[in-house]
Write a structure and sequence with these properties.
Helix content: 10-25%
Number of helices: 5
Shape: elongated
Structural class: alpha/beta
Largest sheet: 10 strands, antiparallel
Number of strands: 17
Oligomer: single chain
């Protein structure tokens, strides 16, 4: 199995995601099985995956951490926020205000179909206390907490049943501890957390490709035959030991003997197939 490491998928995919998905089709022509592995949190990636019929071809680190499995219910709507039923509700652009007298208690944000995206809660001084993010599959998936200076101090990632699976603590705007509550594991760096996920998600890995710089360092400890870094418009400035090859688009990016000129932006399938066959 070959794996492509990326962040999220959405209707607003960049050319990086677009080329990755085209490559997935190209690898199928070569008789190779592939899966995209999403390493970033998104409350909406599942919608794109379902719409594009990619369910069997995409894995998500946060879905695994949050024990989502096959859970897929209709997205929550305004009337599903029963905890706010007893407060005055005013319509505003893109959502609703919830008031206790003249005090702003909460604000919900909905999409054009009326589906809840998030709810922000406020304290007595109408400072942000908490932001709840709702997954498009119909459950509250993340809670973010803020101090009186409006600095993010913590995040809870929940499973569809409402249990906290991942608790992230922040200090000085940076995550400093990742507590996998239900798995009883603690990590001090996000890279360690993601490597833990990949150890469980990547089964019989043969080729693993990092699509974005922030995931390059995840390659080094993986048990696979080939590790590839996909470079786009910039030269590589990291540790060359993380990968066996660096795929570059321009000859000017070739900086050592690990670089391979393979331009997925302009190359046609006819041109790319023999290049990939030779590399693999």
């Amino acid at each position: 199995m070959d794996y492509f490491l990326n962040g999220i998928l959405s209707a607003n995919n960049t050319v990086i995601e677009q080329n990755m998905l085209r490559r997935q089709q190209l690898f199928a022509k070569l008789g190779r099985s592939t899966k995209v592995v999403l390493c970033a949190y998104s409350a909406n990636s599942a919608t794109f995956v379902r719409q594009q019929q990619l369910t069997t071809k995409v894995l998500s680190c946060f879905d695994w951490l949050q024990e989502v499995g096959d859970f897929d219910q209709p997205a929550l709507r305004r009337d599903d926020l029963t905890s706010l039923d007893n407060y005055q509700r005013n319509n505003v652009k893109d959502g609703y205000l919830y008031l206790a007298g003249s005090h702003l208690l909460a604000r919900s944000t909905v999409d054009r179909r009326g589906q809840i995206l998030r709810v922000t809660y406020y304290d007595d001084a109408e400072r942000r206390l908490e932001v709840d993010q709702y997954d498009s599959r119909g459950f509250l998936s993340r809670r973010q907490f803020y101090d009186v200076q409006q600095q993010l101090i913590g995040e809870h990632y929940l499973n569809p049943a409402g249990a906290v699976c991942l608790d992230i603590a922040y200090a000085h705007k940076q995550p400093v501890m990742f507590n996998l509550v239900r798995r009883q594991r603690i990590f001090m760096q996000q890279q360690e957390l993601l490597q833990y996920c990949l150890q469980h998600l990547l089964v019989a890995a043969d080729v693993v490709i990092s699509e974005r710089r922030e995931y390059d360092d995840l390659l080094a400890p993986l048990d696979c035959r080939l590790r590839l870094v996909r470079l786009y418009n910039a030269a590589y400035s990291g540790d060359y030991a993380v990968a066996d090859y660096f795929l570059v688009r321009k000859a000017a990016q070739v900086v050592n003997d690990k670089a391979v000129l393979l331009d997925e932006f302009k190359g046609s399938v006819t041109q790319l197939v023999p290049l990939w066959q030779q590399l693999l």
